[in-house]
From TrEMBL:
<dbReference type="GO" id="GO:0032196">
    <property type="term" value="P:transposition"/>
</dbReference>
<keyword id="KW-0815">Transposition</keyword>
<protein>
    <submittedName>
        <fullName>Transposase, IS605 OrfB family</fullName>
    </submittedName>
</protein>
<dbReference type="InterPro" id="IPR051399">
    <property type="entry name" value="RNA-guided_DNA_endo/Transpos"/>
</dbReference>
<dbReference type="GO" id="GO:0006310">
    <property type="term" value="P:DNA recombination"/>
</dbReference>
<dbReference type="InterPro" id="IPR010095">
    <property type="entry name" value="Cas12f1-like_TNB"/>
</dbReference>
<dbReference type="InterPro" id="IPR001959">
    <property type="entry name" value="Transposase"/>
</dbReference>
<feature type="domain" description="Cas12f1-like TNB">
    <location>
        <begin position="294"/>
        <end position="360"/>
    </location>
</feature>
<keyword id="KW-0238">DNA-binding</keyword>
<keyword id="KW-0233">DNA recombination</keyword>
<dbReference type="Pfam" id="PF07282">
    <property type="entry name" value="Cas12f1-like_TNB"/>
</dbReference>
<feature type="domain" description="Probable transposase IS891/IS1136/IS1341">
    <location>
        <begin position="170"/>
        <end position="261"/>
    </location>
</feature>
<comment type="similarity">
    <text>In the N-terminal section; belongs to the transposase 2 family.</text>
</comment>
<comment type="similarity">
    <text>In the C-terminal section; belongs to the transposase 35 family.</text>
</comment>
<dbReference type="Pfam" id="PF01385">
    <property type="entry name" value="OrfB_IS605"/>
</dbReference>
<dbReference type="GO" id="GO:0003677">
    <property type="term" value="F:DNA binding"/>
</dbReference>
Length: 395
């Protein structure tokens, strides 16, 4: 009997709005009114200490309705304030409005979205690309969205979609390959097939932003140089770095997933608590360790893989780069350097990151992530003939 696992995940896709001038005015008024409602709820919450959502609802709901907010927009404003309990929220800027399924609806036939505003319900055209159309047609449902206004006056709607992943057979002898991914600093990701994805550009760019922020921070610490322009530059630098990191990780994970086929199994290391276990000493060394967004990288890789019908499993990361894939001998001495692995028991030699990726795939196979059927010919080749006869020099 063959069993199937169906995953449902939530994705967000940004679509550009093309409002008419009067529609743009209504959106602007809605954003302003929503921010006023959030700030009123925040003042009441701070004065009374009622940050719990239902307690705050009883205190401010009628006030928000009297301000002109629709019922569900008032509920969303209260929810936004309640979610920020414990954070240092001082003021809400008129930059976005949260919508749910009652205040937002999508019509793909004419590519429009219906939004509740302070001037009634409006149906606004969308500007969609092929990527957005593909996701919207594939979506099981639209859960809501967030209306935002860009710095150049453009309007966007960030739609929250529920998407069914392709059915992935479990326990089938016709399953695909098991591909292990070793994560590191010099090579951000290494696969058993030999593909290596460098993370050097990510490290150098983040170090550049670190130095730039230090320069700006020194000016902020001197009152004579703490100008409005310097404060804006500080805010822009943080946003630029975050966008660069996300863009780089999306590109890298897409390249990895493009190498996989539906039915394959992707094996990753379970790196929870990695930063608390680091042995790096010194402020700079620990900062370099924290430059690598492993959790975000794995998150992007996992959701892209699941959308393609690739299962993702996590394995124990201990000694993956110290265990010989030929004889199984584990020793710290086996890892001669950052790049070189040479087994002291059998003499097998190869790149250390490649060895780790093979061991990760083997552990996933041992956990029952797949079977050694015809679909695993590539892994069998890696673990069999090549490990017996291939001895590459250090590079």
């Amino acid at each position: 009997m063959m069993y199937y696992t169906i995953f449902v995940q939530t994705l967000t896709v940004r679509c550009t709005l093309k409002p008419a001038p009067e529609q743009a005015e209504a959106l602007e008024a809605t954003v302003q009114r929503f921010a006023e409602g959030c700030n009123h709820a925040l003042r009441v919450a701070k004065r009374t200490g009622a940050f719990r959502r239902f307690a705050l609802h009883r205190l401010v709901y009628r006030d928000l309705r009297a301000m002109g907010l629709a019922a569900n927009l008032a509920v969303q404003a209260i929810a936004r304030v309640a979610r920020r309990k414990g954070e240092r929220a001082k003021h809400y800027q008129p930059t976005s409005v949260a919508y749910d399924q009652r205040t937002l609806s999508l019509r793909l036939a004419d590519e429009t979205v219906s939004l509740t505003t302070v001037k009634g319900r409006l149906r606004i055209p969308l500007k969609l690309g092929n990527y957005q159309r593909h996701l919207l047609r594939k979506a099981k449902s639209v859960q809501g969205g967030v209306l935002t206004k860009g710095p150049k006056g453009k309007w966007y709607i960030h739609l929250t979609l529920r998407v069914d992943d392709p059915e992935v057979p479990e326990g089938s002898s016709r399953g695909g390959r098991i591909v292990g991914v070793d994560l590191g600093q010099k090579a951000l990701a290494t696969l058993p097939t030999g593909e290596l994805f460098s993370g050097g550009f990510l490290k150098s760019k983040r170090l550049h932003y670190l130095r730039k922020r230090a320069e700006v921070r020194s000016k902020l610490d001197r009152p004579s140089e703490r100008t409005r322009g310097v404060k804006r530059l500080w805010a822009r630098l943080s946003g630029r770095e975050a966008r660069f990191v996300n863009s780089a990780l999306h590109a890298l994970t897409r390249r990895i997933v493009d190498l996989l086929e539906p039915g394959d199994v992707l094996a990753l290391e379970d790196l929870k608590g990695l930063r608390s276990r680091t042995t790096q000493r010194g402020k700079r060394a620990r900062h370099l360790q924290n430059l690598w967004p492993y959790a975000r990288f794995c998150f992007f890789l996992e959701y892209k893989a699941r959308l393609k019908g690739v299962r993702v499993v996590y394995v124990d990361p201990r000694h993956t780069s110290r265990e010989c894939p030929r004889c199984g001998h584990v020793s710290k001495v086996n890892r001669r350097s950052q790049a070189l692995f040479r087994c002291e028991a059998c003499g097998f030699q190869h790149n250390a990151d490649w060895v780790a990726s093979v061991n990760i795939a083997r552990r996933a196979l041992a956990q029952g992530a797949g079977s050694a059927g015809p679909g695993h010919s590539q892994l069998a080749l890696v673990l069999g003939h090549r490990l017996k006869h291939l001895h590459l020099p250090a590079s």
